[in-house]
C-alpha cells in the first residue's frame, strides 16, 4: 500500500525523494511526507492529500541536505491527516522513521511509553517506533534498532534516521517489500523498483529478518543477530519507459491496450511453436508430481481470486483434479483441509498481497507444496513459494488490474493443459487444438481493441446509472464477477454479478425498468439456458447488453445491444470476454469524471490485513 523512499549521497535528497514517491503513487496513498538532515537537525514536511501538495510546500520552503527519507501513506491507524502522515519522530526530534505495515502490539507499547513521559502527536501505530528509539538509545544507533525490533510485533518495512549518526540510514523488513538501489557514491532505498530505476538498475532485495546499514559508499546487510548476509545483486532489466503513460490519458487504458503484447510474452517459450504442448521450464514436473495430487487449493484476493475461479474450471475440466478456490483473507481461519497431497496455488499481481502471503505460509505449515503465480520477480510471495510462474505482463500502474488479470488467465490455461497432458487426461489432438487457439489469442485481443466506439457509446449512455447487473453461467459467471468488480472499483457504480440460474431465487426482485444488465452468453453448453435468463430480465424491462461470439446471430434478437468477441475454444473465452468489460468500466469511469488510475479508498498492492 504505502510507499517508502530513502537517499544518502552527495546530491540534495529532497528532489529524489519527491521523484521516487511520484513513481510509487500507483500503490495508493492519502498523504505524503519527507524528512531531510540539513547538517545540524532533521527537518520534516508532510501533508495530507496528493503528492503535489507536498511538492509545492517543499518548493516554497526547501528542505536541504544529502540524507533523507520519504513516505506515501495509506491510512490503517488514524484517519488521513497531516499529523498522521509519515515520517514520524520522537519527543526530541532526534529520530525519524517511515513504515509500511502494522505494529500489532503498538497500543501496549504506547501505554508504557506514555507512562514514562513520552508525548505522542499522532494516532498511528508507527509513532511508537520513533519513541522506542528515543527510549532505548545509548549512543549506538544500530544496537538501538535491534532492540526496537525485539520489542515490536507485526508486519513492516522500516527505515530509520538518527540525527546523531547522519552518515547512515538503517532499514529492515518483515512481510513488506524493501529494495536497496546501489549507486556510485550514493545509495537508495525504496519499497518498489520503479522509485529508483531512473537512478540505478543494481539492487539488493531484502528478505524477511534482514537489516541493512546504508551509507553513501556501502551497504552492509545482516540478520537480526548481526550475522553478515551475502546478498546477490539483482539487475533490473525492464525499461523505465514501461512505467509511463505513453500518450494515453490514463495508465489503465494504456494497460488494456498492452494486453496483446502481455499475453504473447507470457506464452513465449511455454507454448510450443508447433502447438504440440505446454512446457514450464521453471517447474520441470514429471507425471508423478501431478498424479500424486489429491486436490488443488487456489488462494487469492480480488481480481486474482476471479482468475482463480476460472482456473478451477480449467484444471478440473482439462486435468480432472478437484480444485477449491478460497479468498485469501478467509483461508487461514477455516482450518483448511490440506496436506502433502495438496498443491496450493497462490495468485497475486504484486507478489506482496499480505493476506495471500499469510495463506501461503499457512499452506506450507500444513505440508502443502506452494506454487505462486505473480507478476513481480523477487517479490515476497515469489521468494516464499516452492515454485513460481511469472506472468510477464510488465509493470502495471493503474490500481484496477487489467493486463495482469489476462496474463493470470493465460497462465491458468497453460497450467491446466500442462497438468492434463502430464496426467494423461488430454489426448494429443486436444492439446494441439488448445495450443493453436492459445497462440491466436493476442490477435483476437488486438481485433477487439481495434473498434471500441460502440463500447464507449454504451458506457456514456449508461454511465450515470447507479446500479448495473452482470449475468453469466459456467465460465461466463466467473467473468461476470470480474466485470462487476472492475465497474464498481473505478466508476463507483453499484455493480453485482450473479449466476444467471439464480435469478429466480431472489435476484430477479432487483430487476426494474431501465436497469442495465450485462449478459454474457459465450458458453455453448449453457447457451439456451442463458437466453432464457435474458428473456426473464427483458420481461422486467431491463436494458440488456449481450456479450456473444462472432457468428452468433441469435443473441441479438433478445438484447438491446450486442458486443461480439472472436470465436475461440470455450475454455479460453474468459480471456477475450473480459476485454469489453474492462473497456465498459474504463469509459464509464471516464464519463463520470472519476480518478481512473487511483480510485478512492483503494490501493494497488494490499500489504495490510
From TrEMBL:
Keywords associated with the record: Aminotransferase, Cytoplasm, Glutamine amidotransferase, Repeat, Transferase
Organism: Sporomusa ovata
Keyword Transferase: yes
Function comment: Catalyzes the first step in hexosamine metabolism, converting fructose-6P into glucosamine-6P using glutamine as a nitrogen source.
PROSITE patterns for this protein: GATASE_TYPE_2 (PS51278), SIS (PS51464)
Active site: 2, 604
SUPFAM superfamilies: N-terminal nucleophile aminohydrolases (Ntn hydrolases), SIS domain
Complex formation: Homodimer.
EC number: 2.6.1.16
Broad class of the protein's primary localization: cytoplasm
Broad enzyme group: transferase
Residue stretches making up the SIS domain: 286-425, 458-599
Gene3D superfamilies named in the record: Glucose-6-phosphate isomerase like protein, domain 1, Glutamine Phosphoribosylpyrophosphate, subunit 1, domain 1
Name of the protein described by the UniProt record: Glutamine--fructose-6-phosphate aminotransferase [isomerizing]
Gene transcribed to yield this protein: glmS
InterPro entries: GATase_2_dom, GFAT, GFAT_N, GlmS/AgaS_SIS, GlmS/FrlB_SIS, Ntn_hydrolases_N, SIS_dom, SIS_dom_sf
Source superkingdom: Bacteria
GO cellular component terms given for this protein: cytosol
Pfam family of the protein (one): SIS
Localization (cell): Cytoplasm
Every Glutamine amidotransferase type-2 domain range: 2-217
GO molecular function (one): glutamine-fructose-6-phosphate transaminase (isomerizing) activity
GO biological process: carbohydrate metabolic process; fructose 6-phosphate metabolic process; protein N-linked glycosylation; UDP-N-acetylglucosamine metabolic process
Source lineage: Bacteria, Bacillati, Bacillota, Negativicutes, Selenomonadales
NCBIfam families, alphabetized: glmS, PRK00331.1
